[in-house]
Amino acid sequence: MTDEMTPPRSEGATVSSALDVPTVDSAEDAHPRNFGSDNWAGAHPEVIDAIVEANIGHTPGYGGDPWTARFQEIARRHFGPDAQAFPVFNGTGANVLGLQSALPRWAAVITAASAHINYDETGAPEKVGGLKIVGVPTPDGKLDPDSIEAAILGRGSEHNAQPLAVSLSQSTEWGTTYRPDEVSAIAETAHRLGMILHVDGSRLGNAAAFLGTDLGAITTEAGVDILSLGGTKNGLLGAEAVIVLNPDIGTGMKYLRKMNLQLSSKMRFLSAQLNALYEGDLWRTSAEQANAMARRLADSLDAAVAAGRAPGLSLVQEVESNVVFVQLPSEATARARQRFAFADWPLGENVVRLMCAFDTTEEDVDALIAAIVGE
User: Fold this and answer.
1) In whole angstroms, how far apart are CA 110 and each of 115, 164, 201, 214?
2) Cβ distance 329 to 311 under 8 Å?
3) What is the pLDDT of residue 19?
4) CB 216 within 8 A of CB 191
């Protein structure tokens, strides 16, 4: 593993031969579970039920419905009494909208080079949001106070975009997770330097489940100002939210959500999904399942190496969420891809990403292990 990581492949990119999954003969087997991304998973049955239950009669559009009002209450329960929740369609929209609502057009946002906003959003924060993104190389996808301070250049110069925000991915694109004290230290640094702290929480549930905390402990209580709250990667059909935690920012959200094409006319169906995920423990149980399957996968691979069944295989990152990065000999990769899809990843030569989802089972993991070791 190198000291400075290049950015990962896009979440939505065609992944080598990984999409060449076997032809199937029955409807029951038409959509086998794979390890390409948690975005590939379907929607949780409880989420589908919630959408169906919301599909009754007429109700005011654009958020004037009781489902959206309920989501506001749920968001305040998780993130504190000042939290303001704004359902949106997708994670890129949430990131662009949240940052744009809190920053002037001359702002720069410091983030890890591997961060989604820097590498995987087709320049949307810059092209749509009008914000300069400053990507900082990191060994594990995580920023720290020193790397943030080192990235602050050109402050006060009219020739430079002004560093006014820090953005963290939680969990990161390398599968690592910020502890509450790490987030607090970064928030203190950002605020001392006149910047806000944004969190891209597309996998926030996985991070909280790994840490054994609630959602507020790694956001509001740690000093985060604004949050993109994930849903799609944890079992929603298509809904995310911007959560404004600092009441002094985000005042333009009311107008920018419409301008940025993220205001749903039938918002009850977005809010119903978010309610299903966050009102009870579904967010946690779904994330815990995905994390547990990643842990099972990593432990099984380690055991296969120790038993001499997987020569040349090694784990290249700590497993702190629902993803496992493995250095896999090319023949093992080719063999496993006869049955399963997964992504190549530039963490080193022959490294692949194996992503688990809320519906990944022990049988899925064991079958992948068997395919990798050739049993």
Assistant:
1) 10, 8, 16, 26
2) yes
3) 39
4) no
Predicted confidence band of residue 11 (pLDDT cuts 50, 70, 90): low
Angle, helices 282-306 vs 204-211, to 10°: value is 70
State the pLDDT at residue 250: 87
pLDDT of residue 12: 44
Least Cα distance to 290 among 227, 343, 358, 244 occurs for: 358
**In the sheet where 162-169 sits, what is the strand order?**
84-88, 240-244, 226-229, 196-201, 162-169, 107-112, 132-136
* Residue corresponding to tokens 């925000």: 165
For residue 282, count CB atoms less than 10 angstroms from its CB and return exposed for 0-12, middle for 13-18, buried for 19 or more: buried
Nearest to 270 by CA among 104, 5, 43: 43
pLDDT tens profile 308-356 = 999 999 999 899 999 999 999 999 999 999 999 999 988 778 999 999 9
Pairing between β-strand 107-112 and β-strand 132-136 as defined by DSSP bridges: parallel
Report the amino acid identity of residue 200: D
Q: Which segments of 66-131 are extended strands (E)?
A: 84-88, 107-112
CB-based contact 51:269 (threshold 8 Å): yes
6 — pLDDT class (breaks 50, 70, 90): very low
